[in-house]
Amino acid sequence: MSPTHLAAALLIVAMWGLNFTVIRFGLDEFTPFAFATWRFLLGALPALFIPKPNVSWTVLAGIGGLMFAGQFVFLFFAMGAGLPPGLTSVLVQLQGPLTVVLAALMLREHATRGQWFGIAVAVAGVVLLARSISDDTPLLAVGLALMSALTWALGNLVFRSARGVSMFAVTVWASVLPPIPLALASLVLDGPAALAAPILAPTWLGWFVLFYTVVPVMWLGYLIWGTLLRTYPAAKVGPVSLLVPCAALAISAYLTGEPLSAERLAAVAVVLGGVALGVYASARRLR
Known about the structure:
The protein is mostly helical. It has helices spanning 3-26, 32-43, 57-80, 85-92, 95-106, 113-133, 139-159, 167-174, 179-189, 192-195, 197-200, 204-231, 234-237, 243-255, 262-286.
């Protein structure tokens, strides 16, 4: 990578790594459904100025419902149930191995031995991770984080249909539909006051969280990510995402005091090692 693109990749790692801690602070301000509603409502604003990409509404609905709404609602509930930001970032990275499994089951794609080995290592790491946190974090939170990874993986399969178009445009237009069902769920489960909290009871922290999760993380992040994917092979850009959990763990430990015991760090290393093996095996398959 050129120095400029390398700096941009590291900026993404920092922004997306910090995002998990920012989300944790946001859950002190908003309910999960209200948070998700406003995140995607604001994220869809550029659709007023950017033409719809050459992608069907069915594909956009699939991306918005699975990769966006599903992923983040489960993630928000997982963190709301007590899963620390750093560990959440590690578990959602399982979307990579899960994508391989789902593609094999649903699309009849044949995974290589290396990919299956990476999946097995990542699953073993999750078991170790669950054992390391079972004493202070509900296992339900771990399950919700795994559901976040699963919906993201399902969304990846749908996202394949959007190849050849601007990732930023797809991100914006796929954010148009989720606010509707999310707002209805928030109205029913949380009430009108919770849904309208950013307007009726605004706080500087609440609006900072919404700004950060939309502008740097969603708009700028996906714009840079799309640029890198168009400039370099996916096998070269993909591993950059493995640095995000590392940054998330370090930032969360510093800002929230998230405990990082030797056992927990070893489990994290096993999970990320399995994901890395899967990425490497996928890269070799593409050669």
